[in-house]
Every structure is written in structure tokens, then in C-alpha cells.
Write a sequence for this structure.
């Protein structure tokens, strides 16, 4: 049999600093947990093992983010809003003060990574050409490869290898419009 004063003191210490709404949510979830495990209805009837599980569950839940009303959430600074959702977050500042060049660099890299052409046709057989620029396994891999693997159909096929193109080659078909920088 557990002493109610001991239980209250322990729970209060575990939930210290939590607002009342968060405390109520944690205690409600802990009570549901104990109901699922078919613990006695009264906390004072719990044995030591059951109390350990109850306190352990509260301890896990005490790490969950605070519960905010919509009004109080909207008043929080951005870093606190993110922390309330994801847990502890620290703000990162980039040296130099002007982040526009860094942001522009990231945007440019993302735009470059999204460059993908699915409208290219092989000049030898008219079949689709795979654009491998975003998923090359090595720098030696071709940027473009004809989808036809049959030398009887594609005249560019060497008999062993499919027709391939690299960006720095001068044999890229002009109708692909890759030399002008438009993609």
C-alpha cells in the first residue's frame, strides 16, 4: 500500500515547471496507461512495481513539449515555437551577418539538383534518353544514356555499350538545347 502524500510529492517534483494544462494531460495519459495494465483504481492500492511503472511513465511524459493555447503559442518567438513542437532547439547564426549569399547558394544548388530532362530523344533511334545527372554513381558515369539496349534498333549502340553522352562532350545533340544553359 502506497502513501498518498508520497505519491503527490513525487509527482509534483517530476512535473515541476509544467503548466497546469500539460500536467493534466500527463496525469490523464498516465492514468490511462495504468487502466490498460489493469492496475487497481486507487493509487494508494498500487504495489511497488506498479508505482515504479506509473512514475516511469510520468517521467517519460514529462519530457514531452509543453501544451500551449493557440493564443499563447502565436505570441511565442519562432525558436520557442519550434522547440515546443520538436523539443530543445538551438538557434544557429551564420558569421558575417548577411545570409543572402548563403541562402542564394542553397537555392542554386537545389535548383541545379532538380534539373532533370525527361523529354530527350536519342538521335540514332528516337527512343527516350535517361538523364543521369542527379544520380550518377561516379564522375566517370555518363550524364545521358539511350534507353535502348539493342544494337539492332539503336545505331549509336557500340554492340557492347548503349550510346552515352557526357556534358563536356561536343557530340550532345543541338536539339537538346543543353549548350545554351537552358534546361
Amino acid at each position: 500500500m502506497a502513501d498518498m502524500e508520497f505519491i503527490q510529492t513525487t509527482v509534483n517534483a517530476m512535473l515541476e515547471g509544467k503548466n497546469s494544462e500539460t500536467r493534466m494531460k500527463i496525469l490523464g495519459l498516465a492514468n490511462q496507461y495504468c487502466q490498460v495494465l489493469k492496475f487497481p483504481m486507487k493509487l494508494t492500492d498500487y504495489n511497488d512495481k506498479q508505482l515504479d511503472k506509473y512514475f516511469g511513465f510520468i517521467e517519460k511524459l514529462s519530457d514531452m513539449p509543453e501544451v500551449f493555447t493557440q493564443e499563447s503559442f502565436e505570441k511565442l518567438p519562432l525558436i520557442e515555437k519550434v522547440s515546443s513542437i520538436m523539443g530543445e532547439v538551438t538557434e544557429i547564426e551564420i558569421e558575417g551577418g548577411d545570409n543572402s549569399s548563403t541562402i542564394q547558394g542553397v537555392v542554386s544548388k537545389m535548383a541545379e539538383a532538380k534539373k532533370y530532362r525527361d523529354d530527350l530523344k536519342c538521335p540514332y533511334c528516337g527512343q527516350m534518353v535517361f538523364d543521369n545527372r542527379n544520380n550518377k554513381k561516379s564522375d566517370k558515369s555518363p550524364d545521358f544514356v539511350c534507353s535502348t539496349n539493342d544494337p539492332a534498333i539503336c545505331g549509336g549502340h557500340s554492340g557492347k555499350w548503349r550510346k552515352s553522352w557526357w556534358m563536356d562532350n561536343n557530340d550532345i545533340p543541338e536539339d537538346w538545347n543543353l549548350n545554351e544553359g537552358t534546361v
